[in-house]
Amino acid sequence: MSPKTFIALSVATAVAVAAAAFAVTRDRGFTPVAGAGDIVFPGLIDRVNDVASMVVDLPGGRVTVEHGKNGWTVKENDDYPARAVKVRQVILALAQLKLLEPKTRSKDKFSKLELQDPDVKGAQSKRVKLFDGAGKPMADVILGRRRQTLPGTTLGGVYLRRPGDDQTWLAAGGPDVTDERRDWLERKIIDIDGTRVKKVVIRHPDGETVTISRPTPETKDFVLENIPAGKKLISQPGVNYVGEVLGNLLLDDVRKSADSFDAQATVTADIATFDGLTVQVLVSKRDGKHWIRLDASATDAEAKTKDGKPVADEAKEIIARAGGWTYQISDYAASNLSKRYQNLVEDKKSGS
Fold this sequence. Notes:
Blueprint: H1 3-28, E1 51-58, E2 61-68, E3 71-74, E4 80-81, H2 84-96, E5 98-102, E6 126-132, E7 137-147, E8 157-161, E9 168-172, E10 188-190, E11 197-203, E12 209-213, E13 223-224, E14 231-233, H3 236-243, E15 249-250, E16 253-256, E17 266-273, E18 277-286, E19 289-298, H4 311-322, E20 325-329, H5 331-337, H6 341-344, E21 345-347
Antiparallel strand pairs: 1-2, 1-6, 2-3, 3-4, 5-9, 6-7, 7-8, 8-9, 10-15, 11-12, 11-17, 12-13, 14-21, 16-20, 17-18, 18-19, 19-20
């Protein structure tokens, strides 16, 4: 994103921030004090493209985002791609922060504003630091509780203080620095529209195999094959969810693949599309969490998607993006990748 783009995005915010500063002092009868109305980081708006790294100390630990040849990546997740849009939004919001009103200097009140030092036990504050390519600090601030509304602006605000300074402030604007570490990662693992899926075969290590399929792309519902005698579907949507499992599949955590999955504790799901793409997903549960690995291939080197893209290229892109990574996914997504018959069928009632 160019500096001009950043500056263009900041115009509306700057106007709203100025209005907020005026409204707060006018409505509450405060006489302006030193610092009120100041930009927290003067000159940062002109150097947003110089930011090379960001360190965020959260209640749940540290997140280090760095910019390199592969774009923005998260150091603590083995340099997995970061959510670049979020990173840029945080940088821009920091550059636009404007002090409105001084607050307490009493340390025993810091916790109420969530402005304790981040290393204090139980602290809910967040510290954000920006650095340029030479490692020189560009910004450093402790962010606390947000104010969803402020007079004269729809932006809301945030309580903050500078590290080493007991003076707290209410500021207009402020970045969305969430507690969830996963929010800093590019969460989308894969996105295969369920309308493309022809068949899903789920193989369990004990030998049970569950297969669902559709005869044509126009067929709405998937069919559960080989339903045991005396059984019926619990619900049709439950079967369809299996066929749609790779639609916008999101990660909760990620790490480099370091060891192989134990075959005796791994479920294998093969998802095949009508246009010749096959995605294999290995599912393993460790320490109460579900982890997966992906592979992809094309059954026909000449096949293309409905958009004209070669399926072989799509398979290569999936491997390039997901190969070598192990993803933690939600229990819900994992359940659809590892269904058993007992999850999909029930006893027929007498006469049904």
